Amino acid sequence: MKKPFRGPDGTWWGVEVAMPSHSSAMVIFHHPTGETARLNRYAWINARDAGALDPSSVLSKSVVTGALDDRALSRIFRRSMPISTDRPSFIAS
Description:
Shape: globular
Largest sheet: 5 strands, antiparallel
Distance between the termini: 44 Å
Strand order of the largest sheet: 1-2-3-4-5
Radius of gyration: 15 Å
Number of domains: 1
Helix content: 10-25%
């Protein structure tokens, strides 16, 4: 399930929660072109409730998605990173 989010430049992103664990989840911002993952962004969020201390529990994607309002998404988007870049992963000398 992708939730719409309007970025600071007016771009409409599709927001998806992925890889939930007991204490964190990845938030993926899908670029609207959908042509390439190069423009997509991601950030990790940490749970702060009592369930985060129980390693046998798992966060629900739908609950996390429902808790992400525009203010929270703006804050997460500001610290998000590109999923892919054109830079090489290492520099050979």
